[in-house]
Amino acid sequence: MKHKTTFFRLALAGLLLTATMSAPARAQQPDLDGAWLGTLEAGAIKLRLVFRFTRQVDGTYGAALDSPDQGARGIPASSVEVKGDSVRVTLASLNAVYRGALQPGAARIAGTFTQHGMSFPLELARTDEVPDPGRPRPQDPKEPLPYHSEDVVYENPAAPGVRLAGTFTRPREPGRYPAALLITGSGPQNRNEEIMGHRPFLVLADHLTRRGIAVLRVDDRGVGESTGDFSTATSADFASDVRAGVAYLKSRDDVDPAAIGLIGHSEGGLIAPMVAAESDDVAWIVLMAGPGLPGDSILILQAELIARASGAPDTAIRWNQELQRTLFRILREEPSDSAARERVRAALRAFHERTRAALGQRPAEGTEAEAREAAIEQQVRQVVTPWYRYFIDYDPRPTLRRVKVPVLALNGSLDLQVPSDPNLAAIREALEQGGNRNVTIIEFPGLNHLFQTAKTGAPAEYAEIEETIAPAVLETIAEWVLGVSGRK
User: Fold this and answer.
1) 471: Cβ contacts below 8 Å, ≥ 6 apart
2) Is the same domain home to 159 and 282?
3) Phi and psi (nearest 5°) for 88?
4) Which of 62, 124, 370, 439 is the most buried (most CB within 10 A)?
């Protein structure tokens, strides 16, 4: 799933505020004004970081951080301290601190980036060329498009206040076409499933439409032009939105009502079977990195694999698994959100204290303590939600056993978020147990969770890779859909 498991929490990427320093300005302060670029190396992961320093009217500094390789911009510094050639930037929202020293010539800062008790060397250099994560990628379609495209809006009658907006594409020639409804992964996603500078659903829709398949891609409820409250929704609610999308497709005279299918990526691959098992209007489903294991197992596997790719030691991985299981237990024992938040907060504080003690560090003080508390509060908000409660207890296998329509399940061998081997095996077993014999399972060697050709599969690579979706995956899906729709 697309959970925020990389170094920075991408939910903060839209914040554009800067914070001023807490220490008084000094006459000998160096000139830091402008952008400073460096590369953080953590195991196999390399992340470009940009610190943007801004001198305030009183001579103090504010700062904001960009992580272009994660699509994050404008993460505000909670404090900036400059004393002589010494620079300290605290990012409370990330539980991170950068400490550096301005080098002779005032063009470099040599320092250390520390987050969650782990430290990495980071050298910054002045730059006038800041990487832009929003640039077009090679596979993004270019105008003019050789097919019909229109913006559409429809209601979800089962969810008052939810009005879904999206884009429908089909070949230009008149006719009734097989149609695919695309279902996004976890987290608030727009109709292009935009992530780290890539637009996977834009690329997928373009390829399928060129091959003769109509496509509907939609902003999640409460995202983009869609209305509703995303924060209170669970996977079951998103399944309700998908059913509304299927009904909309059936209402169109340019769609073959007997050839409407669902293509779900990540959590969307969990939602597609939920809808297909209950609806006679769904003719086929494609699961792209869809889960076959229960949610709690997915999250534990995901955290372990990404931590290993980041170079984390076995002890840290084991402690993190213990923490995850503790949080799962609290959520199951405490139906009250307020009580759950208190217990989760206490568990996270104990975890941080244990980690610092094991590393021989004194208890956090001052700005470091503030950074820790900010990180804890953010984790509390992420964990104590209807979606998280639902997801950790949802087992997709009973639903998969009830799916009788043709299924194509795909994954990449380097997927660290929904690991390929155990999940594809669980999907196959559940479908076969239910008597479904029209099942195609494919693992693509060397592809990650986004189906990009990757080196390690770590999420930090996503933005670095120019490819949005491997062409072989696009063509495999198109060929399969045309085949099960009787169009080959």
Assistant:
1) none
2) yes
3) -135, 120
4) 124
Query: Where do we find the tokens 């990427």?
Result: 13
The reply to whether 308 falls in a domain is: yes
Place of tokens 């920075």: 8
Hey, what are 396's tokens? 């997709």
Confirm whether 1 is domain-assigned: no
CA 236, CA 374: separation in Å to the nearest integer?
31
User: pTM higher than 0.85 for the full model?
Assistant: no
Residue 403 sits in the same domain as residue 261: yes
pLDDT in tens, 190-223: 999 998 889 999 999 999 999 999 999 999 999 9
| Phi (first) and psi of residue 132, to 5 degrees | -110, 110
Same domain for 480 and 428: yes
Which residue in the block uniquely carries the two structure tokens 């779900």?
264
Mean confidence (pLDDT) of the chain: 89
> What are the DSSP calls for 287-330, one per residue?
EES---S-HHHHHHHHHHHHHHHTT--HHHHHHHHHHHHHHHHH
Identity at 214, one-letter amino acid code: A
| Predicted confidence (pLDDT) at residue 180 exceeds the cutoff of 90 | yes
Strand bridging mode 79-83 / 45-55: unpaired
